Amino acid sequence: MPENAKNPDTVTLTIDGQELTVPKGATLLQAAEAMGTRVPHYCYHPGLSAPAQCRLCLVEVEGAPKLQPSCVTMAQDGQVVHTQSESARTMRTGVLEFYLANHPLDCPICDQSGECEFQDYVHAEGPKRGRSREPKRVFGRDDFGGDVLFYGDRCVMCTRCVRYMNEVARDPRLTVVERGNRSVIDTFFEEGLNGSPFHGNIVDICPVGALVSKDFLHKARAWDLDRTPSICPNCSQGCNIDLNVRDNQVQRFKPRSNLDVNEHWMCDYGRHRYHWLNRSDRLDTPRIREGGEWVDRGWTEILEELSQRLESGERPVTAVASPFASNEDLAALRALVDHLGGGRIVFRSRRAEDEIPLPGFPTLTRRRDLAPNRKGAEILGMERVGDDEGSGGLESEMGKGGVLLVLGDELADLGPDFGAQADLFVYLGSHPTPTQAAHLQLPVTTFAEQEGTFTNHEGRVQRFWPGLQPVGSSRPAWLILGALLARLAEREPPTRADQAFLHAAEVTPAFQGLSYETLGTRGALVNDPVPLPGA
Amino acid sequence: MAYPYTHEKETRVLSRGFGDPATRTLAGWKALEGYEGLRKALGMSREEVVETVKSSGLRGRGGAGFPTGVKWSFMPKEKKGPHYLCCNADESEPGTFKDRELLRWTPHQVIEGCLIGAYAMQAEHVYIYCRGEFFEAVQVLAKALEEAYAANLVGEDILGSGVSIDVTIHSGAGAYICGEETALMNSLEGRRGLPRIKPPFPAAVGAFGKPTTINNVETLAAIPHILRHGGEWYRQWGTERSPGTKLFCVSGHVKLPGNYELPLGFPMKELIYDVCGGFHEGRSLKAVIPGGSSVPLMNAEECESCTLDYEGVVKAGSMLGCASVIVMDDTANVVKQVRRMVDFYAHESCGQCTPCREGTQWTARILKRIETGKGTEEDLDTLLELGVQMTGTTICVLSDSAAAPVASSIAKFRDDYLALIRRGERVGAA
Questions:
Q1: What residues does B248 pair with on adjacent strands?
Q2: I need a labelling partner for B266 at 20 to 30 A (CA). Which of A125, A232, B113, B236 fits?
Q3: Domains of chain A
Q4: What are the pLDDT digits (tens) for A350-394?
Q5: What average pLDDT does chain A have?
Q6: Residues of chain A contacting residue B199, judged by C-beta atoms under 8 Å apart
Q7: Separation of alpha carbons A169 and B44, rounded Å
Q8: B240-250 average pLDDT score
Q9: Does the CB of A505 have a partner CB in chain B at under 8 Å?
Q10: What is the pLDDT of residues B109-146, one digit of tens each?
């Protein structure tokens, strides 16, 4: 590049023989990462300060007297860097051998096994055999409080957990006690991490099995887990997560990095509320009530029956939706209600008393709205009713003399007579409901069993993917409602979630211009974000 | 005889008051032309003071031997916020006991040096970071500081010059690593004493995030004399590249161990056999550690023509360090001595960097095994390779220091190791 064409905001350097240009201020480790080379490291984490103490990321920089820590060495113009040179590789092998001298090698009973950075590095570049003949240091196990167990012998002293609690959670409850080889991570007082609202993240950033989750302990091996990108359904923040699934059961939520939403973190409130996805009391067959008895039917039959009943005369339509339903589901409900002559759609949702911000990254806040898609429901013209417990707001004579559609709300606070005065009462849900009055019961999938999108508190539309197999013959609500509307309106039904989203985007100004392609894995803001009332 | 041992070959500049309780007082120090250097410095421009120190060729006495005047000139010329000077009195290197003596006999000498340095570098505050175990020294220093404050030598508008400098004595909590300058600053700030990554260097971002210079006690103690008499005067002693006098802390198997102030370039043999009175009857020289426990060992042959200046000791195969000469006669077991040193480093490692945290402990355990007759010849190769992995790979040089005596002792005293290994093998076979 000629001198005068030099961009002052970038630097050009050579790493492993490959020339590349990176933004000024990037470290060698980040530059190498940009070209797909992972320099092994423990203490460095993109969300934390870099103390350059693990000494694993040392690389050779031509002209420097000794190996340089790539996590804190800034890329400079004309630098020639070797991450795979003899000296760098020898150094890495040596550092790994130092770790091995005291590591218990208890992989068979370690929760981290299979997703352990120590295992990975030692397999890739570790010494063929460790030379240490000395007895190993023993710290044993400690309960750190909250959800965290500490296995001191596995610790590599990267201090990510200490720095996370200091810098991001800003709740400095961990420290290194003692020094040298006796250094060990510890809590200050007996309560440890109890009550610290974001402490679960230290388990995720621990590169080894030193910090493990009590909730996940010995539940599944890492290699048996299927990981599916998803969105945390427990508040309107919309933290990006991975569903970790084994045997069609969610085993845990893990945060997935999205610098616009949750950086690398998630809150403990959201993290630990996944058990409802594994509930076994599920609706699994479309049913119709005939003479007071439930009769199972196939989907074609039951949709035919339902479309006939809906066409049998003009009646007022009322609907109850759920902020746990996807944009696609809610849009399909909206389209059906509009086709039937329009009507009020309400939803109920729980609201917490307080927000819980993450002090070091306040963009991530456990929001007051404890549902993932309140914003989406409101964009689609639905109205929140009821109290902050997610109950009330519905009268038992609701739908009197007309059509009553319920999607996703279990109506748990209502009696068996709810909807009894409706002319036609259709319940679409994944779980049983106490009401006895529905004429049809259509099983729908949860968000974890289908593809779709949620709109978070700031109007960011984010995709999620199916991580669980649907139960029985349950189907996504958008597919059921889309097929129904296709019969009524004689149009092509959507057969894929992206088509369902496009159908919604066509008629919803806020979603216009968005598609699954443009959303990608990071999501995008709706065109005209509407602030949430009272948020 | 005053101070425990003195010798006519000594040149007592810094140690002139050693052994005389009077020099602890302001009056006693003034009787030795005390605070004349400060008075003179305050009449000079800051640049002139730095130039005077540069011209003396004074090199840092803490171990690294970096030219003091040059170090001072790294501080920002334009002052944008507070500047600090730290006097490093965390003397903990095994075998070193010079700073303790300077503090407990000539506290005003150190305070005066601090004030001159602070003036030259526009530092409004001096922190004297004392080793936690220096109980008596801190008491003496505190008393002297009180006197100096009362006499307006420290504090607001010193001697009517318009210059204000405060001095604070800070006692450490007992960690060798806090003598490393960046760990010292962390400790001073109330954090764990962990060395910081450089860059940024202390002259840019130091204590409390402000430009800071850290000087050794002995370095600062030499400053008043240089200011009083000029840089050329100081060069009358020592060599071209290592000018001046130096306190040598001699310990070990000599008849008269102690602190001796000698011109740099003094022959090592003369120090051992003449000044320190040589060995006890029937003993002979086996090994010398010339600069505190973190430098390579020297064998008798290397000591033969060694001169005690920075270059001379390097030429002879080691380093002058802080000139703590540990002498061992032929009764010493080198393996045991090295093991004790490495034990010390393993105990004092801060534990940040993996090669140091794990390497010092591992090395110490292998040495212990060899010492107790359970070693093998392979262990020696392992020790050397660990030493390579521990050198130049960490934030500070503690692990380098632990590796140096191991590597040099295996190279120079391999027979001591082999004897223990073979004896162990024989016992095992029997």
A1: B260
A2: B113
A3: 3-84 (3.10.20.740), 287-525 (3.40.50.740)
A4: 999 999 999 999 999 999 999 999 999 999 999 999 999 999 999
A5: 94
A6: none
A7: 52
A8: 97
A9: no
A10: 999 999 999 999 999 999 999 999 999 999 999 999 99
CA–CA distance, A291 with A508 (Å, rounded to integer): 41
| Over residues A100-109, mean pLDDT | 95
Query: Residue A12: exposed, middle, or buried by beta-carbon count in 10 A (0-12, 13-18, 19+)?
Result: middle
Domain range annotation of chain B? 21-234, 245-329, 334-429
| Tokens standing for residue A175 | 């420290």
pLDDT of residue A532 exceeding 50: no
Q: Residue B229: enclosing H or E segment and its boundaries?
A: helix B217-229
How confident is the model over A272-285, as a mean pLDDT? 96
A140-155 residue pLDDT tens: 999 999 999 999 999 9
Q: What fold is seen in the domain B245-329?
A: Ubiquitin-like (UB roll) (3.10.20)
Alpha carbon distance A136, A259 (integer Å) = 40
CA distance B380 to chain A (A): 12
Structure tokens at B143: 């008393």
For the purposes of burial, counting CB atoms within 10 Å of the CB of B280, is it exposed (0-12), middle (13-18) or buried (19 or more)?
exposed
Which residue in B has a C-alpha nearest to residue A91's C-alpha? Answer: B389
Which tops the pLDDT comparison, A527 or B46?
B46
Q: What's the confidence (pLDDT) of residue A535?
A: 42
Cis peptide before B199 (omega within 30 of 0): yes
Interface test with A, best of B393, B395, B399 (most A CBs within 10 A): B393
Decide if A72 touches B, using CB distance below 8 A. Answer: yes
Chain B contact for A210, CB < 8 A? Answer: no
Asked whether the beta carbons of residue B354 and residue A180 sit closer than 8 angstroms, the reply is: no
Judge whether B176 and B341 are in contact, CB under 8 Å. Answer: no
Distance from CA of A196 to the nearest CA of B (A): 23
Q: Reply yes or no on whether the pLDDT at A4 is more than 80.
A: no
B352 in contact with chain A, both atoms CB, cutoff 8 A = yes
Structure confidence by residue, pLDDT tens digits, B293-309: 989 999 999 999 999 99
Q: How far is CA A278 from CA A245, A253, A448, B377, in A?
A: 10, 13, 10, 61
Checking if the pLDDT of A3 tops 80, the result is no
| Residues B357-371, mean pLDDT to the nearest whole number | 96
Which residue in A56, A179, A185, A188 has the most chain B C-beta atoms within 10 A of its own C-beta, making it the best mutation to test that interface? Answer: A179
| pLDDT for B2 | 65
pLDDT band at residue B424 under the 50/70/90 scheme: confident
- The string over A249-259, giving b where at least 16 C-beta atoms fall within 10 Å of a residue's C-beta and e elsewhere, is ebbbbbbbebe
Which residues lie below 8 Å from residue B35, measured CB to CB, with a gap of 6+? B29, B108, B112, B153, B224
Helix, strand or coil for residue A288?
strand
B137-141: long-range contacts (C-beta < 8 A, 24 or more apart)?
A: B137/B89, B137/B100, B137/B103, B137/B104, B138/B103, B138/B169, B138/B171, B140/B24, B140/B103, B140/B104, B140/B107, B141/B103, B141/B104, B141/B107, B141/B110, B141/B111, B141/B169
Q: What is the ipTM metric for this complex?
A: 0.92
Fold held by B334-429: de novo design (two linked rop proteins) (1.20.1440)
Q: How far apart are CA B106 and CA A485, in angstroms?
A: 97
> Does A303 reach chain B within 8 Å, measured CB to CB?
no
Fold match flag (B21-234 vs B245-329) = no
| B38 has pLDDT over 80 | yes
Burial A340-371 (b: 16+ CB within 10 A, else e): beebebbbbbbbeeeebbbebbeebbbbbbbb
Quick check: B426 contacting A, CB < 8 Å? no
Q: Per the CATH hierarchy, to which homologous superfamily does domain B21-234 belong? A: NADH-ubiquinone oxidoreductase 51kDa subunit (3.40.50.11540)
